[in-house]
Specification:
Number of helices of chain A: 9
Strand content of chain A: 5-15%
Order of helices and strands of chain A: EHEHHHEHEHHEHH
Strand order of the largest sheet of chain A: 2-3-1-4-5
Radius of gyration of chain A: 16 Å
Structural class of chain A: alpha/beta
Shape of chain A: globular
Largest interface: A-B, 23 and 23 residues
Oligomer: homodimer
Chain lengths: 204, 204
């Protein structure tokens, strides 16, 4: 399992970030989530705010997402968006490839499953759960207002799904694109960590 | 975990039947797959051939699948198909409910996740894998001709997906409808069994 990368796609509020962090701790490997924002900012000079807001989210009005269609990450070429979103996507992809080349690690989000397809040994995971679980977690962990939580989480997931679809030509959350998909609400965060670590070992 | 039911949706050739059987053995619980055909035949007097060919597969030309739309299993009512397919669906659903009431078990296919939703404590699993893995398994296990295997498997999965969609209003293989989804080709059949058994224990 030299340099195997665990990629974690996740619904907002499902605990994917926490699960990824705990998996990295358990496996004793590097963890990339918010760190990707810093690395991308250093590489591109784009602002961290822009990277956070556009690095994983489709923006309906953003011209970057409605101009042109190219090919998938897997074929080595990016889709054609606006100059800025393309630059961001390209930089993030380079950072993920550098991370994978450096050593085994856990990467959360950023279409890492597709960016690394054919270029690294990956265990691709998707974490999801029922809205009620995500609402409670988001209130407890991020202080979301209860009244607004459901609509905020749904909007963010929609933007993530559209971003993923645009850049990968795949359906976000379709089990067939992942090695392992887990309902964190039903199984529990700790059990998800254990199951991912077990799957990592299973792959030899 | 009194009477917990493991439901297994699976792509053709992915090893879902074998995995289900091994999970049942490991947990020491009853196993329902082909047995459902016998039980349904006894209950309905429909022929085993008809049950096998219509119990999980949508038939494009079958009037039963194009007449009328009702409500989902979850709400307690069946969709309205033809008299025969409705009778089959109703009988299969009753058998699944009786099986779940009888004791903990593993049930393969038959939209069991939706039939039992809200009526039993379930661990809902979906098994899938790449076509190359499914082809090799189908040749080895069922003697499919190599030249025809890919098209036969794809056609069967399409029919299963349409049947599932028609009777559940859900997308077959969408991770968000299952507790656990596994790529049996990537993880291996034995590891899938171990991960399902572990998830079963995790749920307490």
């Amino acid at each position: 399992m030299a340099n195997r990368v665990v990629t974690i796609g996740r619904q907002c509020g499902s605990g994917g970030h926490t699960i990824g962090k705990l998996v990295a701790q358990r496996l004793g490997v590097d963890f990339y989530d918010k760190k990707i924002v810093e690395l991308t900012a250093a590489k591109t000079k784009l602002s961290p705010d822009f990277i956070r807001s556009h690095g994983e989210y489709f923006h309906g009005g953003a011209i970057g997402h409605i101009i042109g269609y190219g090919t998938r990450f897997g074929s080595g070429a990016l889709k054609t968006g606006s100059a800025l979103t393309d630059q961001l996507q390209q930089a993030q992809s380079e950072i993920l490839l550098e991370a994978a080349a450096k050593g085994p690690c856990v990467i959360v989000g950023r279409c890492a499953d597709c960016v690394l397809a054919g270029k690294a040994d990956t265990l691709n995971v998707f974490i999801h759960s029922e809205m009620s679980f995500k609402i409670e977690r988001s209130i407890a962990e991020h202080g979301l207002e209860r009244e607004k939580a459901a609509s905020i989480l749904a909007r963010r997931d929609k933007a993530r799904a559209q971003h993923y679809r645009f850049y990968t030509d795949q359906r976000w959350g379709d089990a067939r694109h992942y090695d392992l998909c887990l309902d964190s609400g039903r199984l529990g965060v700790e059990s998800c960590v254990a199951l991912i670590a077990e799957a990592y070992r299973c792959m030899g």
